[in-house]
From TrEMBL:
InterPro entries: Prob_Methyltransferase, SAM-dependent_MTases_sf. It comes from Iris pallida. It comes from the Eukaryota. Residues 95-125, 181-210 are annotated as: Disordered. The chain crosses the membrane at residues 24-44. This is S-adenosyl-L-methionine-dependent methyltransferase superfamily protein. Keywords: Membrane, Transmembrane, Transmembrane helix. The lineage of its organism: Eukaryota, Viridiplantae, Streptophyta, Embryophyta, Tracheophyta. PANTHER family: OS06G0138600 PROTEIN, S-ADENOSYL-L-METHIONINE-DEPENDENT METHYLTRANSFERASE SUPERFAMILY PROTEIN-RELATED.
């Protein structure tokens, strides 16, 4: 594990370290360029000169020895490139994972091992082997939870001790995707059941009903929806009554019978094609302006043109959050079909909620 801590003392230490490392990189690059040139020089000067009485045999020999030289040069260049790549990764300060390291649990090593394609190179993509991946966040701040997750006996029941908390913990650390395991899942006790309230009734003007929102589109236009990072599957249950299929994503454990719930971190790119959903609903966003912007762009990507974005009593911690969200929404040029800012009845004073339904424009 060439893991490099992100906290390296004070700024001075980091400066010295990075200066030293970049000098090393520069020296190494210089060295590799020199070596490559020397090899080339050697290859072209040392090849046997054609004799005045050249026969076909000697020409063949010199051609093959030249080919050997060239391929050895190429091998050297390749190996220098690998070393450079490794050094630059170390310098970048990113934790790195060597999938072949014997210190990894054997099951993680097997999962990450590259598998050659049975029929050789794929003519369309040009790839020759398949690789599995694990998020770099799984290693930071510590790779221990991931090691623990992958320490199990293959083809036997999965360890019960940490289920379901360990996978959820890893997801909350943005360790997503998690590596696959080959152990048999245990049956879980049914999750705590939340009482569905498909026909939400409220006296608050912030609460739009499902009927209100669906009536904004022609009948039957909303067929598939996405409930982003939802606290429960109630919205999907309510929409099922209207024959709308809703995929609910959550970093928690919110399974309900007959509904499609995805256990994913809200910080990863949504695993959907572009322009898929007729309706996207969100009740909260992400902390941090940049994170929020990446998040909104991804939501915009998965929504089809003419689709609806429903900010359902979106909780704004303060006025600044409200302004940030409003500005962000404005940037996308959505049409505001409904827009209500205020306090939500029964949830105490001073909490600002934004409820809005916006239509995604058709872009050129
Ligand atoms: C949902 O679909 C069923 C079967 O096609 C139909 O009978 C029902 O009226 C539909 N419900 C709504 C709200 O459209």
């Amino acid at each position: 594990m060439g893991s490099v801590s992100l906290k390296i003392g004070d700024g001075t230490a980091r400066f010295h370290r990075s200066t030293l490392c970049s000098s090393v990189v520069r020296l190494l690059m210089l060295f590799s360029v020199l070596v490559t040139n020397l090899f080339a020089l050697y290859a072209f000067t040392s090849s046997p000169r054609p004799h005045s009485t050249t026969t076909t045999t000697t020409t063949t020999t010199s051609t093959s020895s030249l080919a050997d030289h060239v391929s050895s040069i190429l091998r050297d260049i390749e190996s220098s490139e690998r070393t450079l790549y490794q050094i630059s990764r170390d310098v970048s300060g990113y934790p790195s994972l060597d999938p072949t390291s014997p210190s990894l649990p054997p099951e993680l090593r097997s999962f990450l091992s590259r598998q050659p394609l049975p029929l050789g190179k794929d003519s369309r993509s040009g790839i020759t082997e398949l690789a599995s991946s694990v998020s770099h966040s799984c290693l930071s701040p510590s790779p221990d939870p991931l090691r623990q997750f992958m320490s199990y006996r293959p083809r036997a029941p999965c360890p019960s001790a940490d289920h379901p908390h360990l996978p959820l913990k890893l997801l909350s650390l943005s360790c997503d995707p998690l590596p696959r395991r080959r152990c048999l899942s245990r049956s879980s006790p049914p999750p705590p059941h939340t009482t569905a309230n498909p026909t939400k009734t409220s006296d608050s003007k912030n609460d739009f009903s499902v009927d209100d929102v669906l009536s904004l589109s022609p009948p039957g236009a909303v067929r598939i929806g996405f409930d982003v990072d939802a606290p429960n599957a109630d919205f999907a249950a309510a929409m099922a009554v209207h024959n709308v299929t809703v995929v609910t994503s959550s970093g928690g454990w919110i399974h309900r019978d007959g509904l499609l719930t995805l256990n994913i971190s809200p910080r990863r790119r949504f695993p959907f094609y572009d322009n898929v959903f007729d309706l996207v609903r969100m009740v909260k966003g992400l902390d941090g302006r940049d994170a929020m912007e990446f998040f909104m762009f991804d939501i915009d990507r998965v929504m089809r043109p003419g689709g609806l974005l429903w900010l359902d009593t979106y909780y704004c911690v303060d006025g600044e959050t409200k302004t940030t969200v409003t500005r962000l929404v404005d940037k996308f040029g959505y049409k505001k079909l409904k827009w209500v800012v205020g306090e939500k009845a029964g949830l105490g004073k001073g909490r600002v909620y934004l409820s809005a339904v916006l239509r995604k424009p058709v872009r050129g």
